[in-house]
Write a structure and sequence with these properties.
The structure holds two protein chains of two kinds. Chain A has a single domain (about 30-50, about 80-295), classed as MetI-like (MetI-like fold, Orthogonal Bundle). Chain A is mainly α. Chain A has helices at about 10-30, 35-55, 90-125, 125-140, 145-155, 160-185, 190-195, 200-235, 250-255, 265-290. The radius of gyration of chain B is 26 Å and the shape is globular. Classes of the chains: A mainly alpha, B alpha+beta. The interface of A and B includes residues 66, 83, 259, 261 and 263 of A.
Chain lengths: ~300, ~525
């Protein structure tokens, strides 16, 4: 009779186990999404380059060599040289830090403000909700890039202002997406329960509602980074972003368009890396959404 | 039944649509083929026309745009020599104060008005009118009065001798007196001249169209009936237009596309040495540029050969004076050959061995950006940390020409070029180096202030002895080059391209396109 021992489990272990299984489950699901997995590794590789890039590149990305301008790809210069004889591979590697940090920090900034606005708007509702959402609607009415160009035109060109401009146009989309998640969570039983214990609004928002919106934010964040890279590159292309001499991918693409006929590799490699990076972020976002979003699960 | 009828109707309409589409296709096809029969040409250039008022055009593009429709008493030939145009003949008095022009008879303006002494008077009065403040007035600054001898002879009397006066006459085209009197139409938008082409339409920012003028006095000169000027700022687009035949003449041809375009069947690329000087003006009123040693160090630190090779793709010559070798009275100087040791030494002597920060301004064209980036790389060798600021042309012009005094000016270095449209030494010297021509009065953006040079510039004007002028201009060039108010870079080689069925369209050394002698084969 007494050979069945009641298992004594500490709450700690329950939580740990649940977390582990959570992640484990996620990973099991995610592993099946091959494109997203490859994208993840590509992005991790880019982040690695971002960190160690400047110390491992074969050439000084800023050092011109006027005797070797516009050379096609060779074993010495895998991606060839640009109009000043600088190594394109080295420039792209160093430029990764610039381009990625600009776009990631811009989206991060947009996500922070957008999430706060979305949580507040969804939780409190009423007039506050309506006014925040109408302001977002006004911002939505502008095409993203036009809005960014307008902001940069007011603030003046430069990378800092590009970050501000790009984050500005990502705020409303984050706000809206977080708001709808909040509205849904707000009505759930456990929130009701917490409220009935007498928890403060702040506690309810941060401890209970916010964690529920995190998966949505992660998915949206990943996808938005792709857009931000494109936007930052476009602004640099138009001469509104990075200083023309810096190895920013968009600026590199912009300056080499004069050589599209004569030295194709000048346009090809920066274009390819922008394409691949944006694609990787989008595929990763797709994969994450499939796994994290309960609505897409069958 | 009804359904079938509808079906048939639909079929019929589709067939009709396709046929009409085909036929419109074929008409546009014949249009293209008939293009050469119709004697139309298209000329692609890199900038927009600013104005079509020939007395107020200041930029090269507007000047050559108006020259398609207007003529002066004298004009320039292909090598920028002054030749008679509306004047059959001219003479200059011994004291160099009276210029007598014998006018060509039988010349009419596009509106039917005859060209005669009265027309010259009407133009003279318009230019000298204090209220108008036209650019052409600068050309006539030493002209005291106009005397009319008879219907076909006029005399300009000067209040002091002016060596470059004939070139200045070539810069003053004649407008129909009717058009001057008619206040209902703006001359800027409705040009009426005596030239081989008359005005058709001007869509600002898009195209300028001119048509041949049937009663032109020298009807042999051109057989082209319609010319369209198209401003195309994008280098690649312009090159493509020449390649596909969309444009018959293209100027400037982007240097990096020359090799490829030369291999295209029927395309000819022409190289012309120019009067265009490329330089960076250094604001000599600002620390640390007040120090001549710093300015010289900057000149020694820039590798001019690399500049020509990288930025100009090899098309250009080192600028070894304050003007290009094609300009009148050019005298070559010992160039600041690239010498890093010497540059560093000079920076040491000036007390700037650790360098300083500086700003360079320029427009947004891709060539300017490339030039400024190269200068940034070169000046980094003597620890000058240069920030590139590229501005849209209008903003740039405001920033540079608005300050009233040298102290107010914010410009430190300006990457720019200068081309004397009148081709004379005065045009290449006075507004760049005379202290009376600080912005906003002129283009002395280096704020170069040398009383000796000021004196020489005036002295050169006052003599009519060409030998003495040559000596004076040699002294000016030597002094100004040695003071290094600029980083002297290069003089351009003009690259133009055309299809070989077109002849007689060419670019003058100052960068202006002439279509007066255009002939289609």
């Amino acid at each position: 009779m007494s050979n069945i021992q009641p298992e004594v489990v500490t709450t700690d272990r329950i939580v740990n186990e649940r977390k582990e299984t959570h992640f484990h489950q996620f990973w099991k699901e995610f592993r099946k999404k091959k494109p997203a997995l490859i994208s993840l590794f590509f992005i991790l590789f880019l982040i690695l380059i971002m960190i160690i890039g400047p110390s491992v590149v074969p050439y000084d990305p800023a050092k011109p060599d006027y005797n070797r301008v516009l050379e096609s790809p060779t074993l010495e210069h895998f991606f060839g040289t640009d109009e000043f004889g600088r190594d394109i591979l080295s420039r792209l590697a160093v430029g990764a830090r610039l381009t990625l940090s600009v776009s990631i920090s811009a989206v991060l900034l947009g996500a922070v403000f957008g999430t706060i606005l979305g949580l507040v708007s969804g939780f409190f509702g009423k007039l506050l909700d309506r006014s925040i959402m109408r302001v977002c609607d006004v911002l939505f009415a502008f095409p993203d890039l036009i809005l960014a160009i307008g902001i940069v035109a007011i603030l003046g060109p430069g990378l800092r202002n590009v970050i501000i401009a790009v984050s500005f146009f990502s705020i409303p989309s984050f706000a809206r997406i977080v708001r709808s998640a909040t509205l849904e969570t707000k009505e759930m039983l456990f929130v009701e329960a917490t409220r009935s214990i007498g928890a403060s609004n702040r506690r309810i928002i941060w401890k209970h509602i916010f964690p529920e919106t995190v998966p949505t934010i992660i998915v949206y964040f990943t996808m938005k980074v792709g857009t931000a890279i494109l936007a930052a590159a476009s602004l640099s292309f138009l001469g509104l972003g990075a200083e023309p001499s810096s190895p920013d991918w968009g600026a590199m693409l912009s300056k080499s368009r004069d050589y599209i006929d004569s030295s194709f590799h000048l346009v090809f490699f920066p274009g390819l890396i922008i394409f691949l990076t944006v694609l990787a972020f989008n595929l990763l976002g797709d994969g994450l959404r499939d796994v994290l979003d309960p609505k897409t699960k069958d | 039944m009804k359904k079938r009828l509808l079906g048939q109707l639909f079929l019929l309409s589709t067939v009709l649509l396709v046929i009409s589409a085909c036929s419109s296709d074929s008409t546009s096809g014949t249009d293209g083929a008939a293009k050469s029969n119709n004697k139309k040409i298209t000329i692609a250039i890199d900038q927009n026309f600013v104005t079509l008022d020939p007395h107020n055009a200041g930029d090269t593009v507007s000047i050559f745009g108006t020259r398609a429709m207007y003529e002066g008493l004298v004009g320039f030939d292909k090598n920028m020599n002054v030749v008679p145009v509306l004047a059959e003949d001219y003479s200059v008095s011994e004291d160099a104060l009276t210029y007598t022009f014998k006018l060509r008879e039988g010349v009419t303006f596009h509106d039917g008005e005859p060209f005669n002494a009265a027309a010259v008077k009407a133009n003279f009065d318009r230019i000298m009118d204090e209220n108008d403040d036209l650019r052409a007035k600068r050309n006539f600054q030493y002209v005291d009065r106009l005397e009319i001898a008879n219907d076909y002879e006029v005399k300009f009397v000067l209040n002091q001798p002016f060596s470059a006066m004939l070139n200045k006459f070539a810069m003053v085209p004649m407008i129909s007196p009717n058009a001057i009197d008619d206040n209902s139409k703006d001359i800027r938008l409705n040009p009426v001249g005596t030239g081989p082409f008359k005005f058709k339409e001007w869509n600002q920012g898009d195209s300028l169209v001119v048509e041949s003028f049937n009663e032109y006095w020298n009807s042999e000169s051109t057989n082209v009936e319609k010319v369209t000027f198209k401003p195309v700022p994008e280098n690649g687009a312009r090159a493509a237009m020449l390649k596909t035949g969309e444009a018959d003449f293209v100027y400037p041809v982007p240097q990096q596309d020359v090799k490829e375009l030369e291999n295209v069947d029927g395309v000819v690329i022409e190289q012309t040495p120019s009067t265009i000087a490329r330089y960076v003006s250094i604001n000599t009123f600002k620390e640390p540029f007040t120090n001549e040693k710093v300015r010289k160090a900057m000149n020694y630190a820039v590798n001019k050969e690399a500049y020509i090779k990288v930025v100009k793709n090899g098309y250009g010559k080192t600028l070894d004076s304050t003007m290009s070798s094609e300009t009148q009275y050019y005298s070559n100087q010992e160039p600041y050959t690239f010498n890093l040791e010497k540059a560093k030494e000079l920076m040491n002597e000036a007390g700037y061995e650790d360098g300083f920060e500086a700003e360079i301004w320029g427009n947004t064209s891709s060539e300017t950006l490339k030039g400024m980036e190269l200068l940034k790389q070169q000046l980094a060798q003597i620890r000058i940390d240069v920030t590139i600021k590229s501005m849209e042309e209008g903003t740039l012009s405001d920033e540079i020409y608005t300050p009233k005094t040298p102290e107010e000016a914010k410009v430190q270095m300006w990457y720019v070029s200068w081309s004397p449209s009148s081709g004379d030494a005065d045009g290449a010297t006075r507004s760049l180096f005379s202290s009376e021509y600080f912005p906003p009065n002129g283009a002395n953006t280096a704020y170069y202030n040398n009383s000796q040079v000021d004196e020489w510039i005036d002295a050169a004007n006052e003599t009519s002895d060409t030998k003495a002028q040559e000596d004076i201009y040699a002294k000016i060039q030597s002094e100004a080059y040695d003071d290094a108010p600029w980083i002297f870079l290069a003089s351009d080689t003009i690259l133009s391209g055309y299809h070989d069925h077109l002849e007689g369209v060419y670019v003058l050394p100052d960068g202006s396109v002439s279509i007066k002698e255009a002939q289609l084969k």
